[in-house]
Each structure stands twice: as C-alpha cells, then as structure tokens.
Amino acid sequence: MRIDLHTHSTASDGTDTPAELVRNAAAAGLDVVALTDHDTTRGHAEAIAALPEGLTLVTGAELSCRIDGIGLHMLAYLFDPEEPELAAERELVRDDRVPRAQAMVGKLQELGVPVTWEQVARIAGDGSVGRPHIAEALVEVGVVPDVSGAFTQQWLADGGRAYVEKHELDPFDAIRLVKAAGGVTVFAHPLAVKRGEVVPEAAIARLAAAGLDGIEVDHMDHDEPTRARLRGLARELGLLGTGSSDYHGSRKTCRLGEYTTDPEIYGEITRRAAGAFPVPGAGGRA
Asked: pLDDT confidence of 93, banded at 50, 70, 90?
C-alpha cells in the first residue's frame, strides 16, 4: 500500500480542487490519501464525491498552533467535524485569517512592495487565505523567485518583516479537543528548521505525555539525519512515525506520494480513531 497522509486543496492553500486532488492521488498510484487543509474540513464533501474506486480517503485538517511563541502545525485525522468545541476553535482561526493577511499586505506595502489585497484575494479564491497566497503575490510582482523564497526573515517567515501573528490553538488544547472528537493527532514536520524556529524536543516530549499520537518523520523539509533523529525520538516517546508529501499542487515542488506512511502505522491510526472512518472510493464523478 502507498499511503500519503498530508495534502492540501483549494479549500486552503493548495492549487488542486478537492476533486482534482483525489483523482491525481489515484493517478499517482496511491492507495490512501489524507486531505488535511489548514483549519478547515470544507473540502471533504467534494473529495468524497469524486473519490475514484481503489483510493481510500482519510479526512483530516492541519491545525494552526503555537507553544512558547513558536508556531507549529498539528495534523488531526478522522475526528468528528461536527464536534462543537473543536469546530468553534477552527472557526476562530479561520476568521482571523483575512484581517491577518490584510495586515501582512499592509506591512509589505510599507516596505515598498507593490502587492495589493485584491491580488492576494484573487490568488486565494475560495480557499482559506494564508501566507502561501501572499507568497505567490510576491512571486507575481517579481520580489522573490518562488513561493519558498518568501518564507524568510526578510519577508513572511515567523518574526519576519511582514509577519503578523494570528489566532492559534495551544497544542495541548488541540490534542485534547481532537481526542474528544474521536481523532488522532500527529505533529507535522516538527524539525523543519528551514521554516524558522522549531519546537524543542523537550516540548515534543511534553506533548507526547499529553496524548500526542505521532510525529511526521519523512517530509521534504527534513534531511536524512533529521529523519533518523525523529525516528529515534518516536521510539523514545512511544509515538507513531508517519511520512507524507505535504502536497500543495503547483504551489510547491513536492509530488503526491513523494513520502509515504508505513501500512502498519496507518492501521494503528485508524484503530485509534473513533470520530470518523476512512472512506473507500466508489468511482466518484464529481
């Protein structure tokens, strides 16, 4: 089995619609794909309706969190999307995205960068607006060569000149809420140092003690020594170690299935979940 547990669609900051994403996942030879848009489950229904035969969909979301001033992303799988407390927190994060993005555009304009809110809104479309959309605007006006080039201290990285904080969950609350909704939690790309400051391993140990289920080990932003360290950390802390592409369509260079999760790990994730169940494809046409 080929299993990719971290992808994004136009429901947040990917470039494939949810329907396109599942069709592309099947074409890439995947058996299982998780749709984990940022702080939203809005793409799930479309993905399920279009799900090709032979592909299983894991519903999820990537939750925006912050601990000790450091941002982190928490992948949540197979939770009940209607659970009210978790749904309310996701809504708070989403509601903060537009004013935050507008504030970042304002900072860029103060720095002499000719981006506009209308430009960013056009790029975001119906998705949850975020930094990748602003990064694409910076590419359009020729300030940076590619989206990753915008995530530096000069521009949009945490603490960068145009960075603006947003409402984010405490990760301990995120673990509690996802568990209460019957879901499973995995810390996304925990040692992706190229993105900025990362959470220390002592904090990961605290999260594990609070019920964190796993850490994302095999990821494009982890080099091989980092992956080896994370595999050891997962063993030390009794955490599941996953692998995923973090696919965003054309917005990033990673390919669907570039990194995958061991079937035994996937089986344990599904065993622990009680809020929702993987959806087998039935040849959808959406």
From this structure: confident
